[in-house]
Amino acid sequence: MCGIAGYLRLRPENSAPISPHVTREMLAAIRRRGPDGEGEWRSADGLCWLGHRRLAVIDLHTGDQPMCNEDGTIWTVFNGEIYNYGVLRTELRAQGHRFKTRSDTEVLVHGYEQWGLRGLAERLQGIFAFAVYDAVERTLSFARDPMGVKPLYWWSDGNALLFASEMKSLLRHPALRDRKVNRAGVAQVLVTRYVSRPNTMFDGVSRLPEGCCMAVDVNGRLPTAPQRYWDVRYPSEQVSLEDATEQLDLLLKRTVDMQLMSDVPLGVQLSGGVDSSIVVALMETLRRAKGDPAPVKTFSVGFDIAEFSELGYARKVAERYGTEHHEITVGFREFAEELPLLAWIISCAARRRST
Question: Do 283 and 323 reside in the same domain of the chain?
């Protein structure tokens, strides 16, 4: 995962450029998300700032961010991975766009130029949260993947807008350091164990809902309300169990295959349950079909209390598929000692957190 952050002056007459000290603090708050590098860009007129912490997976040498188009009028920061970027890259080249890197990030830059925000988001297959600044139109646009795997939080007082991958990055800005707790959000956590979208645990801080995009401009003319670009589509006709089984099998194989692209070694978290075991089985099948000599690397976490540990199930799957298996056993005392760190890392209340 990577970390992104940014700032836009919606009403320049009522807001000041963000200070370098604040931007350093905002990026430092999400340093763990991107240990491989840090980058930032500030517009010449001081209206926009974009920051990025990188975990390098694709195009290790020329994929640094923020990234721009040829004339420096379109800038983007991006957290995630675009699985169909090769197909989109070919399509954009046919339209006359020139690429200077091998990264999936650059597809966002030229895709925005070609199709606009919604058209780009609709074409993407992957897990992502990104922001694009158009220096000509002076607009800042966002999009988040359909399943909400990658997080994106934002805040605005009408004069300026802040966004980041994590709330603790936003809270480093002076305007939010005294932000009050959202009492309704706390009540929701106590009852349902999560905060309903787009709310968060802090007043005024929102999260962009999954499958949505949003755009604002310097003069505040564009609506800040998120627009849905994706929703679940149900088949119009009854599908037989046999057809559904076949389609599910094809979709699973295609999805796992798409996610095996990487310029660094890959692994899979194996719990021993149905979901992760299926992924391991498909990875091994694809590895053999491609003639890859390296075994699948699996990683499992268990507890030293037998009734709470599923390491035995994970071992059986690892043995069945001949994986290079790694295990970590966590003791109860160790788990309790790490809870404060875990709370700091998650920094939100949810049954399942975005990464």
Answer: yes
Asked, for residue 91, whether it belongs to a domain, the answer is yes
By DSSP bridging, strand 268-269 and strand 297-303 are parallel
pLDDT higher than 90, residue 261: no
175 and 260 co-located in one domain: no
Domains contained in the chain, number: 2
pLDDT tens for 58-105 read 767 777 899 999 999 999 999 999 999 999 999 999 999 999 999 999
The number of C-alpha atoms within 13 Å of 46 and in the hemisphere containing its C-beta is 9
Angle between helices 311-321 and 274-290 (to 10 degrees): 20
Element (H, E) at 255: helix 241-258
pLDDT at 299: 97
198 DSSP 8-state letter: T
* Within a domain: 245: yes
Within this chain, do residues 282 and 310 fall inside the same structural domain, yes or no? Answer: yes
Same domain flag for 213 and 251: no
* 3-class state of residue 129 by DSSP: strand
Domain residue limits at 200: 3-228
Tens of pLDDT, residues 116-134: 999 999 999 999 999 999 9
CA dihedral sign of residues 18, 21, 24, 25? negative
**214 within a domain of the structure (yes/no):** yes
Provide the pLDDT confidence category of residue 350 given band limits of 50, 70 and 90. Answer: low
pLDDT in tens, 164-220: 999 999 999 999 988 888 888 888 888 887 787 788 888 889 999 999 999 999 876
Q: What percent of the chain has pLDDT over 90?
A: 63
